[in-house]
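Entry:
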Amino acid sequence: MTKQISRGELLAEYLGSMFLVMAAVASMLFFTYVLESTKYVALLANAITVAFVLCVLIEMFGPVSGAHFNPIVTLVMLLEKQVSAGKAALFVLVQTLGGITGTALTHLMFWDEIGSLFLVSETVRSYVYFGEVIGTFILVLAILMLIKTKSNYLPIMVGLLVGGQIMATSSTMVANPQVTIARILTGTISGIRPIDGLVFIVMQVVGGLLAYGVYRLVFAKHEYKS
């Protein structure tokens, strides 16, 4: 099964993950360090930026790789038997490498402000862990339902959902392990300290599996009008 994976699929997942992280990290850096905005304005800009960029990335790479950009989405697609175990493992690897590359490139863009390719974050994000369960749950359920109903608007819907949930969850909805890892490596306002990042990832897995369980129990066996 692994031999059937094309370089295009892997590159799509790598680039999509890279640009998604750049959107998430760079928008916060630009508004806080360059424009000297308040963190509240920066958060609004971050939500809009991620929503816009994610829409385009899904539209670009969806026909190539499915546009997962997220190990939780890949895990759910594995459970749905849409990808093999070998492909899932490679997808998670290139997603994580893409996210780390995105952090490095973002730091290069803002070298005068950052001065390093990587910095281990010390930003405390404890006591907001439950937000990751909620954020990941709604993201995974939305993706499954949009695929199930054969929606023609999946990129827009997912982009809008992520942008909205950034402003509507206590954790500002990371909902993505590779983004979490990438943000551990930035010592800026976008960062997450390693211990909190580890808990975030556990909560993301929990949220994703809960969403998949609800989907299989309630929605999967029904046919819906597109």
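Residues 2-219 form a domain with the Glycerol uptake facilitator protein fold (CATH 1.20.1080.10).
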